[in-house]
Specification:
This protein has 109 residues and is an alpha+beta fold. The protein has 4 helices and 3 strands; from the N terminus they run H-H-E-H-H-E-E. Helix content is 55%, strand content 13%.
Length: 109
């Protein structure tokens, strides 16, 4: 989120995104990305009404969002969910706990 905020105020003649076309104004793209990140973060937090492992969260997204089940997509999805979990943990909203050799995520009380 902080990176998106920095980019919002970064002066440049044009921007070249990793996906998409060069543009002179990236405000709309940044706002859409920020909104989507917030939606996914809120969804991950809502899933943690019961303790879940990262893999259980990834599996939920696969089922509910009909994600392509290739191994490369699995690794990308796992990395994305890990980033959301890390963000929520850094914000103090969730915490990890190892139980029976499985790391599960809990909402902070």
């Amino acid at each position: 989120m902080a990176t998106l905020d920095k980019l919002m105020n970064y002066p440049a003649e044009f921007y070249v995104p990793a996906h998409g076309h060069p543009s002179t104004d990236i405000t709309e793209v940044l706002m859409a990305n920020k909104k989507r990140l917030q939606e996914v973060t809120e969804l991950v937090l809502s899933l943690l009404s019961a303790p879940l492992s990262r893999e259980e969260i990834v599996a939920w997204f696969y089922r509910e969002k009909s994600i392509d089940s290739s191994h490369s997509q699995y690794f990308l999805s796992t990395a994305a969910i890990t980033a959301h979990l890390t963000y929520l943990a850094e914000q103090g909203q969730i915490k990890p706990k190892v139980a029976d050799g499985v790391l599960k995520w809990y909402r902070s009380s």
